[in-house]
Specification:
Elements: H1 2-30, H2 35-43, H3 49-52, H4 55-65, E1 87-91, E2 95-100, E3 110-115, E4 120-121, E5 128-133
Parallel strand pairs: 1-5
Antiparallel strand pairs: 2-3, 4-5
Protein name: Cytochrome c oxidase subunit 5B, mitochondrial
Subcellular location: Mitochondrion inner membrane
Keywords: Acetylation, Membrane, Metal-binding, Mitochondrion, Mitochondrion inner membrane, Transit peptide, Zinc
Length: 138
């Protein structure tokens, strides 16, 4: 009886060992680096952001190289806020709500609607704002 139990446990151990060896062989084939990776590492190391970028990230990187800012990521240009040089507000629609902090140390924000067309004034401080059309790249 004891030899039968021993034989069963040996068979189970052999199956387990065979199964784990098979899995190890399958995983080792998956981890083999591709020729592109080997070539990249041989030619100079880690690829740049431009080489790795895809989709919208690639569009944004390309636009920034051309000096454009499609998603208003960069700090906007400073304007005087006068009638001749109004603050520019980009919008994908014909109106946009604008918040004006009239004084530098003020904690209250004056909100008002800005419509497409002529420059409009802030109802509190008189600074001028102008809505300009803006199109997203996608």
């Amino acid at each position: 009886m004891r030899s039968a139990q021993c034989c069963v446990s040996v068979r189970m151990a052999a199956r387990l060992l065979l199964r784990s060896a098979t899995r190890a062989a399958v995983y080792s084939r998956r981890l083999v680096p591709s020729q592109a990776v080997i070539g990249r590492l041989a030619s100079g190391g880690i690829p740049t952001d431009d080489e790795q970028a895809t989709g919208l990230e690639k569009i944004v990187l390309k636009a920034s190289k051309e000096g454009m800012d499609p998603y208003n990521i960069l700090k906007p240009k400073e304007y005087a806020g006068s009638e001749q040089d109004p603050h520019i507000v980009p919008s994908i629609t014909n109106k946009r709500i604008v918040g004006c902090v009239c004084e530098e140390d003020n904690t209250a924000v004056v909100w008002f609607w800005l419509h497409e067309g002529e420059a409009q004034r802030c109802p509190s401080c008189g600074a001028h704002y102008k809505l300009v059309p803006h199109e997203l790249p996608h």
